[in-house]
Amino acid sequence: MASIDIESVRKSYGPVSVLHGVDLAIKDGEFIVLVGPSGCGKSTLLRMIAGLEEVTGGEIRISGNRVNDLAPKDRDIAMVFQSYALYPHMSVADNMSYSLRLRKTAKDKIASAVSSAATKLGLDPLLERRPKALSGGQRQRVAMGRAIVRQPKAFLFDEPLSNLDARLREQMRAEIKKLHADLKATSIYVTHDQIEAMTLADRIVAMHGGVVQQVGTPLELYDTPANLFVAGFIGSPGMNFLEGRYVKTGEGAGVRLSDGTVVPVAPRAGLAPETTVTLGIRPEHVVIAKDGMLEATVDLVEPTGFGIILHLSLHGLPFKIFTLDRDALSAGPTVRVDFPQKHLHVFDETGSRAD
Amino acid sequence: MKSRSLLLTGAHRLAILAYVVFALFPLFWLLKVSVTPNDLLYSEGVRMWPSRMTFEHFNFVIAHSAFPTFFKNSLIVSGATAVVVTVLASLSGYALSRFSFRAKYWIVALMLITQMFPLVMLVAPIFKMLSPLGLTNSLTGLVIVYSAFNVPFATFLMQSFFDGIPKDLEEAAMIDGATQFIAFRQIILPLTLPGIAATLGFVFTAAWSELLFALMLISGNDAATFPVGLLTFVSKFSVDFGQMMAAGVLALIPACLFFLLIQRYLVQGLTAGAVKG
Amino acid sequence: MMHQPMKHNRPPMMKRIADASEPYLYSAPALILIVAVMLVPLVVGISYAFRDIQLLNPFSGGFVGLDHFRALGQDQAFYGALRNTLWWTGASVFLQFTFGLILALLLDKPFYGRGLVQALVFLPWAVPSFLAGLNWAWLFNPVIGPLPHWFYALGLMDEPHNILSDPHLAMWGPIAANVWWGIPFFAITLLAALQAIPRDLYEAASIDGAGPVQRFWSITLPFLAPTIAITVLLRTVWISNFADLIVVMTNGGPADRTQIVASYIFTQAFKRLDFGYASAIALVLLALLLVYSMLIVLLRQTMLNKG
Known about the structure:
The complex is a heterotrimer. By secondary structure, chain A is α+β, with helices and mostly antiparallel strands. Chain A has helices at about 40-50, 90-100, 105-120, 135-150, 165-185, 195-200, 220-225, 230-235; strands spanning about 5-15, 15-25, 30-35, 55-60, 65, 75-80, 155-160, 185-190, 205-210, 210-215, 240-250, 255, 260-265, 275-280, 285-290, 295-305, 310-315, 315-325, 335-340, 345. Chain A starts with a strand and ends in an 8-residue tail after the last strand. Chain B has two domains: about 1-40; about 65-240 and about 250-275, Orthogonal Bundle (MetI-like fold), CATH 1.10.3720.10. In chain B, helix 7 packs antiparallel against helix 10. The chains are: A alpha+beta, B mainly alpha, C mainly alpha. Chains in contact: A-B, A-C, B-C. The interface between B and C is large, with 90 and 88 residues. Chain C: Its main location: membrane.
């Protein structure tokens, strides 16, 4: 097991820069999830750690040793690919033992490593099959098995679940989590799915446009998003945003919306009065109340079974509410809503969180 | 409506039948004359099948002529060429498929140009160059020349097969501890077997058919390939049709066998190659 | 594996050289062969065009400037060969393409036994070209082949004779063999292109009310156009250089009526052993083909610009 240090790592293809200096210290045994929309540079960063992409600038260290110029085979890491990349002409057992055979490990050691990994993943009855004869979930397990047999310094996952259907994805997610609890291996996991990020990570690294936006535990990112991007990206349905101006009031502070309504918020020390701000509130934190402060038109009612999503127009802009209250099914044509102060997020003109 | 579609189907099948007959008739005629006894050859000229069959022509060709030597020479030349070209084209096709490097554009351009210029242009200079090396009248010389002629197309063919194999597989192998070359040999090559078969077959057939350079570079029976042997035979004894056609049938066998084996892959590869060209 | 920590950011020299040279190592053997056996002889061949190279004359080899080209300007046989090349290439490509396209369209429809039919109709392509030539020469031979007798029976001929020895008809012999031999190439290429057309396009078109003919013109043809353009271009160049069938079937005769430029070059080199003159003709042929390719590329460019 190993720590991984990433120090102002940059990547560019000719004149096009895709990573603008990433710093990240990953502790031994930690499960890190890189999350962000496609094109944010998360996969590039992972492939640089694996040695599949050259590092344009900065330094990557595994267990303190600089690995920038090491071939992938000399880095002692394992990787699970989105396509699984199983060798189609080898049996499951051969797929799993390939790395050990390349290292000329003794036959009996290979056999015991493969069989213990297979048992862990429930692959015992499939060892002689070819990948073609496996289901998607089974292939996924083989890909994981191939990674764990050699007990590498770190595991890299490149969107490993995105080719599975929803139910299987949920199941494999739990298995990956259990496996990590069991092996305690340093893991870096790339995904664009924020639910995977929330459920799996010790710490999430949210990326956008080749820049790290925020690093923190899942709940830190959820409760105190550092900027508008993280606030909008984490959570589903996504956070609601309202434009307004920051104002001082008699009792404290507030945000004045376009119609003149002032939504009271806790005072923000760094904000001058009358600066443009964005007010954010998660759909599940909005309260429907007869005497609510704001009125919104109901456009659409979406029952999910578990709860209800109301699609509203607030000052002509889309706005969502998530509620467990079944009465909301018959809401309309307008509802009045309130924003509890402790759940309100305020972002300044640059989009950064203001506290 | 129903009868109209029936009519269309009928016309379709009839057209297909016409093509099949057109494609096979010349070969059928070759076979027919090769088994017709000499005394019936002229009296039953346009009959579809002789009233009596014989294998004496085949017997003669195999036992009493130089054709077995020609056959053997052709097999050696075509087989060696196919192997050499396939090995070289696998390597170069892999380079074109997997690496981006500065000279790539020029290599592709060079290979395309060699497909464009008339090979007859090279007859004289190649003869002049090979002659002092003792490579005229030698099977080795033919193998070298044929290999060079076939490498460009085979490279494009192999490249298109490599392009069909996801890059993830090599990357997985490299992370598993392989160098790029080991990944190429242990992971990629085994997956390209259909492509390798197609390339082998294509080059074998091309070398088996080549006539002009063989005529120019080979004199005398010892190193003559089948086309050369058959053609000298034709111009010397242009009367014994039965024997010539028996020899023709024999020449047809390896090429057709190869073709039927790899037909499916060839269609795949040729398309890719043709579109690239 | 231990690694020395390094402060500078450039990879070590050795690794960079190794990385950069890898693709060249893979392509080197093929390149060396191509350069040695094709490119060098090409350059040498161009130089021959300006020298007196006769294989049986030990005193030849001198520089003769443009003499060969002057002789070529006076050479009626060469002009005849040029006309014949146009005729041979035009007729062969047109017929191969037409019948190839029809065959591809026929095979694009699923029917019972398609795999077998496909293998059978593509078989001529596997027949060695010299054998195809001999085979057709024999079919046209009234002594042994049925064709003259059939033509006679149909009233196309006064008596069963060999068209290969008739100066007016001889060219049709190699063309027939070439069409027979070359249809599969076009059919294979076009069939693959046909099968790459998304099926739902046809379904959408028929729902929109397009008949089979409209579907062919509005979907099939536009999709095939690039493949057609490139295969016809390549095939034209290839066939104009393709002398095997002519050498085997007629050897340029009768009275040079089937001599094309490629077979003329071969005759000069092989029969007269006059390599200098042969190379001069080859150079002219190369120039003509380059002009032809250039014209096609230009034509394509203007069409693209208009479109």
